[in-house]
Amino acid sequence: MKIKELMTKKVLVLKTENTLMDVAKLFLEKNIDGAPVVDIDGKLVSIITKTDLMRAIVNKSEMNTKIEKLESKKVITISSEMNIEDVSKYKVGRLLVVDANEKIIGIVTHTDLSNNLVEKIAKEYRDLKNIKLSLMELDSIIECSYDGIYITDGDANTIKVNNAYERITGLKKVDVIGKNMRDLERDGFISQSATLLVLSSRKITTIQQEFSTGVKVLVSSTPIFDENKKIIMVVTNVRDVTQLNNLKELVQKNKEITQKYVSEIEEMRTQLLNNTEIVAEDPKTIEIIQLSNRIAKVDTTILMLGETGVGKDEIAKYIHKVSNRNGKQFIKVNCGAVPISLIESEFFGYEKGAFTGASKEGKVGLFELASGGTIFLDEVGEIPMDMQVKLLRVLQEKEIVRVGGTKPLKIDVRVLAATNRDLEKMIVDGKFREDLYYRLNVVPLFIPPLRE
Q: CA-CA distance, 75 to 58, in Å (whole number)?
């Protein structure tokens, strides 16, 4: 700081022609204890103080005595361009600031210098306190980082390590603080130092690093330069990739397992389709075939639903083929094609002479013919209401009575049914028995159309 920044520019001066009375009045009026004395040209001549005034009075000098009559004093002067630190060596109450022509341009007191020193010390204290707070904040930020942070100086000596680095690597701060990266690399603490690579290349460097603890990490080291382009620090960010590698291996294993399952499913699909005349590629049809495989082994009634032409009869044949009844009869009945008047005799047969035109030997019905095997009732929604009652009895009791006969005949037959009609709506409309619907619909199987 220069003197010109601290000096008081307005200076009270006395002239050589001023008297002692003028001096006394100025001192009393301005409450000062001294003032510089200048000549007619404004150049500094001397300085007069309260002590000089008192001495003159004691020596019985007249109050109208001019200042120039008094003994002059040598005055220490300074330049406005001087540094304040250089001026503090002068042990005087006040210092006059003069220009090159010895004219007064300002004044600096010992109090000014003292106050400036106090203010400077206070500022330095505040700056030091702010620096300390900034360092604490920076340290907190470093410690809060989830990634590890490793800092070295320009010679690869470790100066800072955060807690995350300890957690990730398994190394302790005491193991690395103050150590040089060359020593840590040589002693096997780390596989390779990115810091040393940065000091060599002077560029940001990213490598994979392995520690003596077995942990693998990804590190990125960044050089910090001073104004002379010299590396003064290297900051390294450390990220744990051990879990990432484990996850990668797990994904790879899952991929291999998935591929194995896909191959097995494809093989199963091939075997599945080799046992039938059905040609299928889409997942929905494959799923229906797989479901048919499972329910074929259970001797229960199945109701197949779907539009006309979707292949319900083909699925029915397939179910019979893979069931335990595959060595017995598979009887398909198109319920919509049997005349209403003949449907009962077709289903259950008749005794000889049961009605006009009947065969003399009688006739075995389709249910009796299918005993031990499977009967497929296609278009079951076309069965008239009075016949539905008798069909219900067959499903419940597992027996039939021929037309014209009185003796029930036990049958062992599995019933598969199919329709393209909305049976639930037919129930509401009174065209299909609800109890028969639930007897048939033990296992529903929807067959999608080819467009799906």
A: 24
